[in-house]
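Much of what follows relies on a compact textual record of a protein's fold. A record is reproduced here so that you can trace the correspondence yourselves:
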Amino acid sequence: MITTANRLKTVEEYYFSRKLKEVNQLLSEGKPIINMGIGSPDLKPHASVIEAIQVALLEPNAHMYQSYQGLPDLRKGFCDYYANNFNVSIDSTSEILPLMGSKEGIMHIAMAFLNEGDAVLVPNPGYPTYQSVCNLVGAKTLLYDLKEENLWYPDFDALEKQDLSHVKLMWVCYPHMPTGAQASLELFEKLIAFGKKHHILIVNDNPYSAILNDNPLSILQVEGAKDIAIELNSLSKTYNMAGWRVGMVIGNAINIASILKVKSNMDSGMFFGIQKGAIEALKLGKDWFDSLNSEYRNRRELIFLLCDKLGVAVNRNQVGMFVWAKLPNEYSSEIFIDQLLYEKSLFVTPGTIFGSQGEGYIRFSLCVTEEKIKEAIHRI
């Protein structure tokens, strides 16, 4: 056997990759599993998006290598989206880079900015990939706790008491995944000030701002944010294009050029047809979002009812495509979800996969039909 790289000792197989094997085994045994764990949109992209990729297949250059920086119209579409939704001005030639999903961008950013031994502030709870990429590049993870009593915001007083001299980057994610907490402009202003004070690159992961959110915000709305901040975004949730793998990273020209150095050595450009579909998606306006959020709102109300039946508490002001629920004090997250899985054939996500601060919580996905949610309620 060939010995694997030491870096593989720092990470584990992604939770959903492991757990879905167990779920699929139960399905193969005839168990009627309802999967409420995965945030993979079950709704379709708009018909115009499907048509755009179909038409694109017949264009002469459709199957050639594409630009590492994406089609000019795609970059312009992203810029228009930010101008229309956040009133943020972006230079389409130098301040934006299309990605094959924002998850790719997380790794590219880590590779572009982190040296072995650099320290990184990672939210707890938070998206597990932030910590994984730090481990893979040899950076040191410094978890910062987010707590419900503090609205799932960073505790800046606690952060200031730490040794920040080796911290180079801070991951944030608002609207927050998994808790659904929405940022305020004041929070973003504090994050930008904190980054500038300590010379820390602030990276906000922002794929949920359009889902069940009446006040979408971008960290780039803060004056001078591009000096110290980068933002990731994605079409996966906003336009039901998760499997297409289309995202973006936005920042100043120097930071984007640095990320491009990594990306251009990792892939050979996004498929032409997918770019054409994404361009069409970005043209969609208020009617699209109203329809999408109407469907998710109905599902969320049913999930709230399911939570009531389960005896778990929810904050009904959370946003995004998940419902974050608090268990009674005596319950462990992983024990609770396994009981649901094996006794009721319902799969939900334990809060512990997002960090120790997720203990005592579970997460429901809204990517489930109303009929299945009603069936889940019936089972309880």
User: Anything to note?
Assistant: The longest helix spans residues 286-310. The mean pLDDT is 93.
